[in-house]
Design goal:
The protein is mainly β. 5% of the residues lie in helices and 38% in strands. Strand 6 (57-61) and strand 7 (66-71) form a beta hairpin.
Length: 129
């Protein structure tokens, strides 16, 4: 898979399949993505290789256990890492080019979803993580 931010300063390749595919409805993801929810593709961290712009990636510790990565130029969300899953990175699906194969989706943190958004698919829903 190939991925890039809006301004294309940050670009990378991923040499593994998507192992986890989720739609997160938590308030942090909603604010950071400016949307009703954020969609993430979980991949092995070791399979991700920057092809340009690694020095343009900024980090934000959104909690004691979550780190968010974004392009310091255009602000595109690159992904999230979790301390309790050091081998994985959850890439923002919005930066992945094309339509790669992925496992079935599920929704997380639906207990704090935007009250104005209705989930209309049949994917499993979890109140929390």
């Amino acid at each position: 898979m190939k991925a890039f931010c809006e301004c294309r300063a940050v670009q990378f390749e991923v040499a593994s399949d998507i192992e986890d595919f989720s739609h997160c409805h938590c308030s942090q993801c909603r604010r950071l993505h400016g949307a009703a929810y954020a969609t993430f593709a979980g991949v092995k961290r070791s399979s991700m290789r920057y092809t340009s712009g690694e020095d343009k990636v900024a980090r934000y510790d959104s909690s004691d256990t979550h780190q968010r990565f974004f392009c310091s130029i255009c602000g595109s969300n690159v992904g999230t890492t979790l301390d309790d899953e050091p081998d994985m990175i959850y890439l923002s699906m919005s930066i992945i080019d094309g339509d790669p194969p992925r496992p079935p989706a599920y929704h997380i943190f639906v207990g704090s979803k935007a009250p104005w958004h209705e989930i209309t698919d049949d994917a499993p829903q979890r109140e929390e993580y």
